[in-house]
Amino acid sequence: MAAARLSVVGTGIRPGGHLTLETRHLLAGADRVLAVVDGLGLEHLRRINPAAESLQDCYRQSPGREASYAEMVRRILAALDRGGHVCAAFYGHPGVFVWPAHECIRQARARGLEARLYPGISAEDCLFADLELDPALHGCQSYEAMDFFLYPRLIDTSAALVLWQMAALGDVRRDRFEADPAWVRALAEVLMADYPAEHVATVYEAATFPLSEPRREPISLARLHQVSFSQASTLYLPPLAAPRLSEQRLARLGLVAEDLGPAAYRRYRDR
Ligand SMILES: C[S@@+](CC[C@H](N)C(=O)[O-])C[C@H]1O[C@@H](n2cnc3c(N)ncnc32)[C@H](O)[C@@H]1O
Questions:
Q1: Do residue 173 and residue 218 come from a single domain?
Q2: Alpha helix (H) ranges present in 52-180?
Q3: Which of 43, 101, 162, 193 has the smallest count of CB within 10 Å of its CB?
Q4: Which residues are catalytic?
Q5: Cut 0.85: pTM above it
Q6: Distances (CA, A) of 172 to 90, 151, 163, 168
Q7: Which of 208, 233, 236 to mutate for ligand 1's pocket (most ligand atoms within 8 Å of CB)?
Q8: Is residue 251 part of a domain?
Q9: Does the residue 244 lie in any domain?
Q10: Domain end call among 96, 121, 146
Q11: Whose CA is nearest to atom 1 of ligand 1?
Q12: Cα dist. 94→127, 159, 163, 169, 211 in Å?
C-alpha cells in the first residue's frame, strides 16, 4: 500500500451533476472514500468508487454537531492510519463552512502526511447562478448568520449581503437544527438599523435534484420572522444603492470619472 495521503473534495449541491472532472478522478483512484452523503449522493459516489462509505451515521452515533464533526475527523484519520490514498467528500465546496474538512487536513499534516483540499460547487455559486448575480458589480459580503448577529460588523449596504446557516440561528449549544424565531426577529432588527423595514430579501435554496426548481422566496425584513428556514436556507439581501465614486482618489491619480469607461461613468452620473 502506498504512503497515506488525504484528498478532501466537494460533491457540489446536486449529486452527480456538480462533480468536477478533477474530483471524479480523485474519487475513482482513491483506496478509500469516506463521504458525508447518503441516498442518491452515495449511490453516485459508489458508481465511481464502489468502496465509498457514508459518514452520515456520525450524526446519529455522536449527537450534537460538535461531537458528530469530531467523529467524522476521527474516522477519516483512522482510514489514513491504514495507508493509501484516502478521499474525504463533503457536499458543496469542502472548504466552505465545513469545519471537519479543514480539521482533518490540519491533523493529517500534523502527522507529516500529504493533505490537500480541492474546490467544489458551493451553495453561493448556485445562488449567483439562480439569482443571476455578478459579485463584480456591487461586491458581496458573506457571513455565517449567527456569527454576523453576535459579532457586529460594519455593513456595507452598497454591496450584496449573504447570510449562511439561517436554520442554525440561535442554536448556541449546537445541538438543534432549526432557527429560533426570536433570533430571526432580533437579526431582522439588526438589519433594519441599516436597511429599510420594506427592503426585500430572498430566502434561497438551490435545487438539489436536476429537474427541481430552487426556492427563491422574497420577504421584507419586517416579515423575516414569518418565513421558515430549512437546513438548506441561505438569505440574500440585495444592495440598497450604488457606492459613491471617490473623486479625491481619482484626482490622486490625475483622472476624472469619464476616464473609467462608459459603465463606471454611468454609475457615477446616475448615483
Ligand atoms: C454547513 S454549510 C455547508 C456549505 C457547503 N459546504 C457549500 O459549499 O455550500 C450549510 C449551509 O450552506 C447553505 N446551503 C446548503 N445547501 C444549500 C442549498 N441547497 N441552497 C442554498 N444554500 C444551501 C445554507 O446556508 C446552509 O445552512
A1: yes
A2: 58-61, 65-81, 99-110, 123-130, 135-138, 145-150
A3: 193
A4: 65, 69, 91
A5: yes
A6: 23, 14, 17, 8
A7: 233
A8: no
A9: no
A10: 121
A11: 97
A12: 17, 26, 18, 22, 24
CATH number of the domain bearing residue 81? 3.40.1010.10
Sign of CA dihedral 253, 256, 258, 263: positive
Residue 206 belongs to some domain of the structure: yes
Q: Is the domain of 115 the same as that of 12?
A: yes
Q: Is the CB of 131 under 6 A from ligand 1?
A: no
pLDDT tens sequence across 204-246: 999 998 889 999 999 999 999 999 999 999 999 999 988 888 9
Q: 15 in ligand 1 pocket by Cβ < 6 Å?
A: no
Of 59, 165, 184, the one to substitute when testing ligand 1's pocket (max ligand atoms within 8 A of C-beta) is 165
Ligand 1 atom closest to 206 (CA): 20
**How far apart are the C-alpha atoms of 149 and 226, rounded to whole Å?**
18
Which 3 state secondary structure label does DSSP give 4?
coil
Q: How many domains does the chain have?
A: 2
What are the tens digits of pLDDT across the range 76-128? 999 999 999 999 999 999 999 999 999 999 999 999 999 999 999 999 999 99
